[in-house]
Write a structure and sequence with these properties.
The longest helix has 30 residues. The strands form three sheets. The protein has a four-stranded antiparallel sheet with strand order 5-6-7-8, with no helix packed on it. Strands 3-4-9 form a three-stranded antiparallel sheet. The chain has four helices and nine strands. It is α+β, with helices and mostly antiparallel strands. The protein is elongated. It has a domain of 115 residues: SH3 type barrels, CATH 2.30.30.
């Protein structure tokens, strides 16, 4: 009870203000204890499907960024991949190696460079090392290249006349088999379906997790 004194018509009069006491019962105590334990435990962890979904979105994001980056860089710099299907460049580049090549003009080539040039009467190009370069009479932009594989004892049977050629920048052994496998129609179709299904599953809307009711004050 709180007692206040006011003034009415010049005479002090006691004014009594009654306050109400709120009694909190056992139900409130249990709810308060549950809320306190939840706050101490931190935010609820996502379910296993949610974690898999988040991981899948992250992997797809990384793959997408790397793919776009490779397409952009290869387009800007004129880079491409060549797969060596023979062992003529072993041991430097054994069978199944993937070579990263950059197309340059014939005037920029030098003895010792490894280049990829069209093979006469064949759809398969040849990737060998330059052992000799000669000028071409009447064509200042072209060069006549004599090539030889590192594993071969003799030079190629005929020179190659080119005005430009893809020059090997770097090579990775055995990576070419993966490239060839990934370029087969069956694998490309399977990968496309797998990626499409993964994206659809990752972006499929799900119901938000149920929220626990907030504890409320109770009056007894």
């Amino acid at each position: 009870m709180a007692v206040h004194r006011g003034v009415v018509s010049g005479a002090p009069v006691p004014i009594t203000e009654m306050t109400t006491t709120i009694h909190r019962g056992p139900a409130h105590a249990r709810a308060h204890g549950l809320a306190r334990r939840r706050r101490a435990a931190g935010p609820a962890r996502p379910s296993r499907p949610g974690r898999v979904r988040d991981m899948l979105i992250g992997v797809l994001g990384v793959v997408g960024v790397l793919t776009v980056a490779w397409l952009l860089v290869s387009w800007l710099l004129g880079l491409s991949l060549v797969v060596l299907v023979t062992g003529s460049m072993a041991p430097t580049m054994p069978t199944g190696s993937a070579a990263l090549v950059h197309t340059v003009t014939a005037a920029d080539l030098a003895v010792g460079d490894v280049v990829t040039v069209p093979r006469p009467n064949s759809a398969t190009p040849v990737t060998h090392r330059i052992v000799q370069i000669d000028t071409v009479r009447g064509d200042s932009a072209s060069r006549s290249l004599i090539l030889q594989g590192d594993a071969n004892d003799v030079v190629d049977s005929a020179p190659y006349v080119v005005d430009e050629a893809p020059r090997v920048v770097a090579a990775a052994p055995h990576l070419g088999w993966v490239v060839l496998w990934a370029k087969t129609p069956t694998v490309m179709l399977a990968l496309a379906l797998l990626i499409a299904g993964a994206i659809a599953w990752a972006l499929w809307p799900t119901a938000p997790p149920a929220q626990a009711p907030e504890p409320s004050d109770e009056k007894d």
